[in-house]
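>> received
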Amino acid sequence: MKLAFSTLGVPGLPLDDVLRLATTHGYHGVELRAHPEEPVHPGIGPDARTDAAARFEAAGVEVLGVAGYARVAAPADDDGPVIDQVRELVDLAADLGASYVRVFPGGGDEQSADEADATAARRLGVAAEYAADRGVRVLLETHDSHRTGAAASRVAGLVGHRNVGVLWDVMHTWLGGEQPSASYAALSPYLGYVQVKDIAGPDDTTPLPLGAGVLPLAECVEVLSREGWDGWLCWEYEARWYESAAPLSGLLGGGRELLGRLLNESA
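>> returned
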């Protein structure tokens, strides 16, 4: 498996500094938070995109994916704005040489589960053809209204297109009461990559160093290894949302060592 970290953990950090952290601590890739607060987002022009891609290539670091904020199950009468948002993310990923785009479910309480599934699948089905033409895969994260593997996989199954899959956020499946083996069983036909993290507990999701909290990281890695999965593990450290969180820059080395140890022990 290859290792990456998300720029959600280093909000607003210039690309050169992000790449320095990746190369210093032995990470193979970076997931870019695609938000206007960040150096790279859908609003930047062609020259800035070319420059960003060149910087990653020169550093020998991959752009794993573009983490967007489109909410594909959100209730609305018009699918157009959501589909346009996904297409903008796909274009950005393609221009950067990234394989993946992350989207959220975002279903509303006023919908039934079937209605939310159908809304998300309809929008993702349209976006899938566009993503296929650009060589990008759109991943629905296990999050909010679809936090378990069982829920997210329902949507991916309805879409039935290879350019739509699922991103496994291990915190949300755990908070949803799903064991790692069950999450993997549901997600394996659709799995793009895996976001790892750690927290103190269900009532305190302040990000912690990997291994310092309660999430079943060892079990997740064991399940992936046992099944022969060899994709990406991406550390999503949610520093942007928690001012009290310790700086990620001082934790990346320890996180890399822990993941390496877990991979070796599970081999």
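>> The first strand starts at residue 2 and ends at 6.
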